[in-house]
Amino acid sequence: MTLQLTNTLTGIKENFVPLNPPYVRMYTCGPTVYDYAHIGNFRTYAAQDLLKRYLQYKGLKVAHVMNITDVDDKTIAGAHQKHLKLDDYTAPFIQAFHEDLKTLHILPPAQELRATQTIPQMVEMIQKLERTGHAYPKDGSVYFRISSFAKYGLLSKKDLEKNITGARVDQDEYEKETAMDFVLWKKAKEDEPAWDSPWGRGRPGWHTECSTMSLNAFKFQTLDIHTGGEDLIFPHHENEIAQSECATRKKFVNYWFHVKHLLVDGEKMAKSKGNFYTLRDLITKGHEPLAIRYVLISTHYRKQLNFTFDGLRMAKESINRVRNFCDALQAGANEQPSQEVKQYVERSRSQFEKALDNDLNAAEALSAVFDLIHYLNLAAKRGFHQDDRACILGFLNDVNRVFAVFSLEEESLPADVQALVEAREKARLTKDFKHSDELRKTIQTKGFTVKDTPHGPQVKKIL
Ligand code: AMP
Ligand code: ZN
Prior knowledge:
Blueprint: E1 4-7, E2 12-15, E3 23-28, H1 39-57, E4 61-68, H2 73-81, H3 86-103, E5 111-114, H4 119-131, E6 135-138, E7 141-144, E8 164-169, E9 179-187, E10 202-204, H5 206-217, E11 223-229, H6 233-248, E12 253-259, E13 262-264, E14 267-268, H7 279-284, H8 289-298, E15 305-307, H9 309-330, H10 339-357, H11 362-380, H12 386-403, H13 415-429, H14 433-445, E16 448-453, E17 456-461
Parallel strand pairs: 3-4, 3-11, 4-5, 8-9, 11-12, 13-15
Antiparallel strand pairs: 1-2, 6-7, 7-9, 9-10, 13-14, 16-17
Helix pairs in contact: 1-8, 1-12, 2-3, 4-5, 5-6, 8-9, 9-11, 10-11, 10-12, 13-14
Bound molecules: adenosine monophosphate and zinc ion.
Adenosine monophosphate (AMP) binds at residues 29, 31-32, 40-41, 43-44, 228-229, 231-232, 259, 261-262, 268-270.
């Protein structure tokens, strides 16, 4: 089955066809590092992670790039307030973001780009836009002329025709109903970090940053997927399209994937509203990272999700249900493998895939898993043959490669990995550490990690 995704650009569910299979060029708007990311932000990153993992499950190779917005109005204001240099102010938030991604089992991007390290490329892009009449300088800043791009407004589908004011706006964030010539390069203010440019000292606008980083990362080729939260559709992504397509004369992105905002008590969770929880807040209160991840991804990414502590408790119960089932799976033994178990697992796998193929319907995919567990809990009373166990665990491990929310019993190791682990143990015992290290690397290329413990090697599948 082909994966179908809702494309914000067309507004409909479309078959996902990458331009250069098996590779998928995917770009995610990363965090603005002026504070710790809140769990609303992580709803977007976790949904993007589910998408990435499911593409990988389907055999695609995802070239994933994310940026870090480490210079913008907010980071500059934050640094100023704390009397710190911009880099010193943003560094701890960048580190915290990396740690939080890890805590939530969100796979890191293959490449992470920082705005402050991509300034020359930004200047180059702005010069190109100026040469082709899409940008104009004014008082040391440079603006994008939106009337020069006929497709402006196609992504957000706002009736911007009537609302194109021709006025210029300097801020990174501004009124979301009116299209205005937005700033590509901002003239430096006193005491602000600034870089040299043909227009004098200044710094890039936020939209410029993402366009330049994504285009450079993919060598100016069309991206397959661009992801972000729904608030980025306008003006950020609309502006990214305008600049990028005017600079390259090519389609910028084929599929736009936008995640609906996480709400708290029916309101958008936002740093500016003060109604937000960081991941750290919740962990300090004793909540489990995997339960938080479960809450964030178990509701369809385009459906409203209201964060509640009850929801978090239920997520924990769901995770425990799988845990308890895995324990039950070990008990008893049946002499014959069961055809019925195999058929049930196969049926669940196909329901699981069908649900995810349908615009990443996570809720339905998980209910296929829980229906299976419900049935197998009854069968567990009779015990399982080891082939049944392997078949069930094989499926649950695959589910977990996509969802990464369960802590499962180890699936029995594939014979070749088992042989490598044994050979590595032998090498270690004979103190042939060079060989044992080589074997560890080979085991890693097969998707497993080995940790040496006092009880012998512990092998884990890389999620
Ligand atoms: P920011 O750091 O503000 O640039 O946001 C990082 C990402 O989080 C962007 O993709 C935003 O769209 C997304 N985001 C912000 N608030 C929420 C929310 N309440 N729920 C889901 N995603 C959000
Ligand atoms: Zn962006």
